Amino acid sequence: MSKNDISTHISEWMRDEAESPIVMSSRLRLARNLENHVHPLMFASEQDGNRVINEVQDAFPNMFIQRLDTMDQQSKYKLVAKHLISPELIKRPAAAVLLNEDESLSIMVNEEDHIRIQAMGNDLSLQTLYERASALDDTLDSELDVSFDETLGYLTTCPTNIGTGMRASVMLHLPGLTIMKRMNRIAQTINRFGFTIRGIYGEGSQVYGHIYQISNQLTLGKTEEEIIESLTEVVQQIINEEMQIRERLSKHNKIDTLDRVYRSLGILKYSRLISMEEASFRLSEVKLGIDLDYIDLEDFKFNELMVAIQSPFLLDDEDDRTVNEKRADILREHIN
Questions:
Q1: Inter-axis angle of helices 126-143 and 46-59, to 10 degrees?
Q2: 184 burial class (0-12, 13-18, 19+ CB within 10 angstroms)?
Q3: CA distances from 119 to 28, 47, 135, 149 (A)
């Protein structure tokens, strides 16, 4: 595999020459349902789901559609790895995703709700993402009848999404807070204010590489702008605390931190077998070392590598190497 090949595993919008030390990406999602259709969890047959897919496809003729029932399992998991669909969508008998050209906009069809509009970016500009998602929502509203109540707002399958139907989330790289065992305290604190911390693929998912999603839980009783403003403030506070911890590690725990960083660097450089869990952990610590100016690696792309080392991109019937072996080979080639 050549060095340029890993970039084929990520969406165009994810490519950033100057990766942020902490903010990896942001996402804004709008959950919507259609009138005159039962919700996806109540579909009597695949025909019910296909009717919804066809209506949504007609409403967005300029977006590319991928119907999951025409894809193999590996291709579906690649979409999950790129955060274009959720793991839950794969389980639906009639499901699809619509994408724009750079894959920064996606519309999941027939997950828990009929429609989940997603706008994604690689910075903290949640308001910009809301405006992009809202433009698709306006198109949807002009073309189809959306379930809406004047008192409750948008009607969703899960009551926790009623209201704005909006979930905003920010993906953060927080090795300092993790090393100092601060994440549980932070999670408990922000939970009291209607926010939550999840793993890399959202609810119920595992934390890889000290990467966390911070998102709102409340969708009812606040406007979209209020939710975005509050989440941005919470995220900024977490970023500030992470920066303070990194400064402390650099000043007062420098030898321990150097040892941690260089051990991980050595493992990535010389391993012949490595699991996803360990690889993400080691990449995170090397990223920390780069951000603290301890080491200088040419063309180190943390975000791209975190996607490229995932199993869906490593499976190949014509290659008899194991996934852990291929993952180690990729990392050795890109860590120099």
A1: 110
A2: exposed
A3: 5, 28, 10, 24
> Is it the case that residue 3 has pLDDT exceeding 50?
no
- Cα–Cα distances (Å) from 134 to 113, 118, 167, 184, 295, in that order, read 17, 10, 13, 34, 42
From CA 223, how far away is CA 311, in angstroms rounded? 39
pLDDT in tens, 214-239: 999 888 889 999 999 999 999 999 99
Whole-number CA gyration radius for the chain: 21
User: Which has the closest alpha carbon to 182: 256, 238, 232, 259?
Assistant: 238
What average pLDDT does the structure give for the chain? 91
Q: Determine phi and psi for 247, rounding to 5 degrees.
A: -65, -40
Residue 163 pLDDT > 60, yes or no? yes
- Measured between alpha carbons, how far is 173 from 50 in angstroms, rounded to an integer? 39
User: For residue 131, what are its two tokens?
Assistant: 């405006």
- The pLDDT tens digits of the residues spanning 119-156 come to 999 888 999 999 999 999 999 999 999 999 999 999 99
| Helix ranges, 60-145 (H) | 73-81, 87-90, 126-143
Residues contacting 139, CB < 8 A, separation 6+: 59, 60
